[in-house]
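--- STAGE predict ---
source: upstream dedup step, 1 unique chain passed
mode: sequence only
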Amino acid sequence: MFINEKSSKEKELNNFLQSNIKSHYLQTIEWAQVKNNWEHELIVIKKDEKIIGTMSVLLKKFPILNSYMMYAPRGFVCNPNDKETLEKMTKEVVKIAKKYNAFVFKMDPDIPDNDNFKDTMLSLGYKFTVNSKTIQPKFVYRLNIKDKTEEELLKSFRTKTRYNINLAIRKNVKIREAQRSDIPIFYDILKFTAKRDQFYVRDIEYYERVFDSMGAEHVKIFIAECEKEPVAVAMSIFYGNKMWYLYGGSLNKYRNYMPTYLLQWEMIKWAKKKKCDIYDFGGVSGYKCKNNPMYGVYHFKKGFNGEVVEFTDELYMIFKPHVNNMYNIISACYNRFLEAKK
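--- STAGE serialize ---
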């Protein structure tokens, strides 16, 4: 018998999330606290009094549409081959949609692209978004660190990457773990990098919420210093069997000391200490074309000798087609405005 609950005992839920191979920090209650401008619902599926599946659903109201968008970032957390559990989750999604008068539900599971999974989800009433911008990256770069020593990992890196790591060490680049009081240092370098490389950066309060909500057990900020001066920063999150490189930046000064390479190596070593199986470098949207402005990001990550993982396309379920069409039109106009402004 399956049981759905709005909430579950925190310890039981955390134990399930930490042990399930599909767990993801974006599917935690802690991350829902980070997204404090969204409503939150938690689906918990049980069988024989044990949790066998969960899904954290964020909901955002659009007053102009008088309706909610539902989104499960990297949802769900369960066996992707367990159709019965997926069906139960889907029924709960529909109930939540009715409760909030939602017009659409979206999710982007941490599931590599495969036809069997797509067939299952299509049979449950979902559709797939193809060739469009997704909320989470469709392509990420991952390094398998399971059952490998630090020496084996370092040896597996490409020659230039190993050289740059050792160069940073020879240049006496120091990596230290930041305290909460160091977040302004992290943020200033992140803002500089965002302006230089033209990417979006949130306000400082957002990064403070990530640090506070996820807690020291799951999130760390690392600062690289040259001549006692902060020159590069990175934030990573550990959850379940994975660690994610979340945000990072660097100054132009001392770039030839290669501090960003040493930062990544220190975070990979932290992942090893936490007994992770996977170190996730994050998105590599430009990996297919050398002319893509994001190719340089991929080239940097490629040196650590991981692999590109392509996730399944974003899934969605529309409850109010006319409202959804209006939302798409408004979003397209807003995005064009942002591009023109840039």
